[in-house]
Amino acid sequence: MPINIFSENSLSWMPQKNTLKRPIYQSLVHDLEEKIKSNILMPGTKLPSQRELADYLDLNFTTITRAYKLSEQKNLTYGVVGKGTYISPTVNTSPTITPFNTDKTINFGLISAFEENNNLLTNVIADISSQSNINHLLTYDSPIGMTSQRKVAINYLKKIGFSVSLDNIAITSGGQNALTIILLALFNANDKIAVDRFTYVNFIEIAKLAQIKLIPIDYDSAGMIPEKLKYACEHNHINGIYLMPYFANPTGISITDERKITLAQVIKSHDLVLIEDNYLHFLNIFDIGSSIQMRTLLPNQTITIISMTKAISTGLRVGYLLFPSKYKHSLVTSLINVNVKTSSLDAEIITQSLVTGVAYDMMYKKIALAQHANDTFNTVFKDYPNLKTNTLFFKWIPLKKSTLSGKKIESFFLHQGIRLFHSDRFLVSENDKQTFLRISLSAINNAETLKSALIKLKTLLEQFDYI
Amino acid sequence: MPINIFSENSLSWMPQKNTLKRPIYQSLVHDLEEKIKSNILMPGTKLPSQRELADYLDLNFTTITRAYKLSEQKNLTYGVVGKGTYISPTVNTSPTITPFNTDKTINFGLISAFEENNNLLTNVIADISSQSNINHLLTYDSPIGMTSQRKVAINYLKKIGFSVSLDNIAITSGGQNALTIILLALFNANDKIAVDRFTYVNFIEIAKLAQIKLIPIDYDSAGMIPEKLKYACEHNHINGIYLMPYFANPTGISITDERKITLAQVIKSHDLVLIEDNYLHFLNIFDIGSSIQMRTLLPNQTITIISMTKAISTGLRVGYLLFPSKYKHSLVTSLINVNVKTSSLDAEIITQSLVTGVAYDMMYKKIALAQHANDTFNTVFKDYPNLKTNTLFFKWIPLKKSTLSGKKIESFFLHQGIRLFHSDRFLVSENDKQTFLRISLSAINNAETLKSALIKLKTLLEQFDYI
DNA sequence: TAATTTGTTCGTAGACATTTC
DNA sequence: GGAAATGTCTACGAACAAATT
After folding, report:
1. Nucleotides in chain D with any atom closer than 7 Å to protein CB
2. For chain A, which terminal residue's Cβ has fewer other Cβ atoms within 10 angstroms, N or C?
3. For B71-115, how does the pLDDT look when each residue is reduced to its tens digit (9 = 90+)?
């Protein structure tokens, strides 16, 4: 018998007990789903606590736990220990950053790749198509990439400081695709992966699709804090860790050598699988060998992703996946089951652009453009010396405390003709500390346009007291 | 206190009670994993029953249930109600059918696409690369495919009997990739999908990676049996169904119109998501409109995959994904998170090959080649009229009862220089009924070679009393 | 065919960790 | 800083379902 007697409307969600069929927890989720769909329950609403609802329905509270757990899996709700369970703010929407930008909006959102030099690839493609026999590029063969292509890859990788053997590299359909392959190959639903408190949105999203839980770890200017990671490992069963050692997206932080060493110790002692994402690796051409590689410190547990999309062209989907031998079988099986194979044609274009030197030409041009965009930013924002970082592709601007949600701030700017992203988008879980804007400098392909766009941005930021 | 006293070695697996740490179920799986790795426990071994082991360890038997469940998730074991729990025969191996065939073996294994006409694409590729500006093919834009490309697709689809609007089609990186996108978008771990008792290996594998359970349903010559599907739906909570309505792989069965109607009724009444895989759709060019489409019967719950790899070239990874509007958001989000986008270049080549008619030329040539291969098969096996089907790309040969396992039979033939696949590979769960061999006719690109290979195959089959 | 064996599902109880107040 | 609130994890007992004998 219930101990408490509840007056009408005392709970935000009051499922009717007599309509519940067994299994009760599923029936509860069904009821919740219906009420969210029909707008009876709105995103952000706090649901009754497990014990409260259990009392009301005269059930054991862990039955409610199960219902809330299932509804979390379905992305209907999320729970915070000590606080409560809430209806997910992203019900029926998703924070996935998509490349759609059809309108005349200023695009500070998407991190792109200064694509105005893509035409340099025309000759490479023409040369490939004029080969007497391109049959070998059009068959099922070589699902992980042709030997010749992997050899060229190895040669390029050496230039940017990565050493790998022919048996430990596969070609994927880009960096994001590599993440999918890795998550499906090496992790199960409900596994946990440690990430920076702010991290790559589409990693958050693919982890959600694979039902892998992300555990946010705090960071400072040198990168993730090893003590915080250690603490999390000791209090959770964590299976892996995702890091962007170089110009982390979105914070722009590069992990210092010292920090890499202490992080590696923690990762080793808790036997985590390290996923190392080097999406801006080509900037390393300038300072090869200047820093320690995580994979050198942790050779048997590091999986490295080198995406070629930012370095060359975002439309050609090619990335390199580097792995220790013990993961090879799982990763190759996963690659075949996710993709069958990577397009040999795309892979060949990237390969030939590396062989002919066109790729390097493009990379140097991109670096110059990025440098110039960066200079423009620094000129426009010269009164804000704290924003002067050397994160070439994007900026990370701290905001004053505001009562507005991230969503509201983004739509305010969009209304003003500027697409940009608020730090909330990059959050794995709630956070009431500092908030930021991420300003991509890499999607606007014209120096003059960029300058006037930045001036407009600065004016708005100051006018509405954001910075 | 345990009731029974066990003598030494009475159980196939005897974890030491004093080494078990809490959580016990995880500790048990760890112990099992170690013993499998170190070959103390071999694949196929029957493990103690849940109650037996619980008794021995003085635990509640559902704690063992949990341990066995986790080990099944990790692909270490599988359980059969009423029979017991066994160590998975595929521990550390995988039945994924890979395109590797580097040696001189006769390849009756892989279903390929009569690729000797791939050179016809050379001009298409050359024309694309000679366009004054191919920049638009090399950027992040149009993740689900350019409008122009989707329009051409719609036009082709009409020719093979599929009607779809521009808003309900996306371009994926091939059919397998579409399956990945669908499973991640619309299903969760532990969901159940009904499939034919024998089904596409790489669907079994991607389902395993996504931790989705497949429920095998019996079939007859007209396709899956609706009563069996109904029974399964009533006794399980089934979320979806995967069908290949046309020349199902590997059985070669096409679902009759009558059967489609009764299946659709069951699918509708149990609200299943139907995944319809049309990998050999282009054979329909010959008999457009001759059969009912499942998606016409179930317009709001059918997702259709039209892979272009078999129709044109297996190396260009392009497929079309057709969906009702209610699934659009989930599927597009999943596509972006799995791939970011499909290679626009590959998509454009397929598109232009359709526009210029080269694609149709290739398809007709493939059909002729397939017809010829089929005739050759029928000639060689003329004494076996029961094998005379019109399954153009492969054959399905019933075997006499044998004590040999599928693996053994495959390796017997491989030893004789012939790669082929035994029906065990296509099984979702055990089956002691009829066994088969699948003989692909589509990977050998030379008529003479095919004939002598088939003669060799027939001689071996008869000599060793397989048929 | 009926009884038995065996794996599966669900609701329950207690111990625990984190956050809030 | 400590007590209370709240979600999470693990083990357990009962009812159930499928396969075997």
Report:
1. 4-14, 17-20
2. N
3. 988 888 888 888 889 898 777 666 777 665 556 789 998 888 888
pLDDT tens-digit map of A219-241: 999 999 999 999 888 888 899 99
Asked if the Cβ–Cβ distance from A206 to B133 is below 8 Å, we say no
CA distances from A358 to A120, A313, A362 (A): 7, 12, 6
Q: Which of A140, A171, A172 to mutate to test the interface with B (most CBs of B within 10 A)?
A: A140
Contacts of B119 in chain A (CB under 8 A): 133-135
Which residue of B173, B182, B309 to mutate against A (max A Cβ within 10 Å)? Answer: B173
How far apart, in whole angstroms, are the C-alpha atoms of residue A73 and residue A207?
A: 12
> For residue range A386-434, what is the model confidence (pLDDT) as tens digits?
887 767 899 999 998 877 888 889 999 999 999 999 998 898 877 667 8
Instruction: From the CA of A331 to the C1' of D20: give the distance in Å.
Output: 40
Q: Which of residues 225-254 of B touch A (CB under 8 A)?
A: none
